[in-house]
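Quick illustration, no need to memorize.
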Amino acid sequence: MSKSSTGSVKSSDSLLREFFIDELKDIYWAERHLVKTLPKMKKAATSTELQHAFETHLEATNTHVSRLEQVFEILGEKAVGKKCEAMAGIIEEGEGIISETEKGTATRDVGLIFAGQKVEHYEIATYGGLAQLAKTLGMQQVSEILGTTLGEEKEADLLLTKIAEEHINYEAKAEPADK
């Protein structure tokens, strides 16, 4: 590996850069699959407010995909996804929530919020780590792009919390269990 004038490995040749690119491919796959999943979550939701939150996040997710493509371009890399096992599992769990809860209930909405927040927390962890790695690797522009997405993921998580805490959880609490 080549060394820079400070004696450190150049970021373009480092194992860390390779790891960074690999993780970008992982989140790129995840975001592209969320574009397919969010409409299903919206359709399964009962609450108009929750449906709107999923619709809004679908628009944001399309933007996140575009930003990731911009990052790949900046790095001179092809925008290719690598299956994200974590997101695949979270999506599968969300599909299970839909099939195991009663249609038209606030309880299903609670489950959808849980699934949505698991997605958001994974994305927050990933974008936070990637933004910091980009900074470490001297990729300030890339770090800023990823940081913007990180902020939007945090906002989406807060919105889901607000929807749950203001009414969905209470509506679900009032639903009688089938005996």
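The chain is about 80% helix and 0% strand.
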